[in-house]
Task: structure prediction
Amino acid sequence: QVQLVESGGGLAQAGGSLRLSCAASGGTFSRYAVGWFRQVPGKERELVANIMRTGVITYYGESVKGRFTISRDNAKNMVYLQMDRLKPEDTAVYLCAADRDSLGGYRYWGLGTQVTVSS
Result:
């Protein structure tokens, strides 16, 4: 059983930066693809970025491409999301998830960290 804990959220101004961290424990983290999602009340959960096991292959949603960077350190069981040039529409709860199945679902989820971007 893998436990995921997000951190690094908070309040930022538009144009600013935040770095989110996802710490994993309880499993062989390096075996899993990991994704960052965001959730806004009343809207569908959105995939922001994901990263494959070795970190070579990454994916970004169109709304964050060129502004956000996902990375991982398997030795430390960590995944990061560097968020630059933040916009108010980036305001959401950000969650990390691990162990993606063939249909794109994830088995393990963290509880999330709130990111609020002021204009």
Q: What stands out?
A: The mean pLDDT is 95.
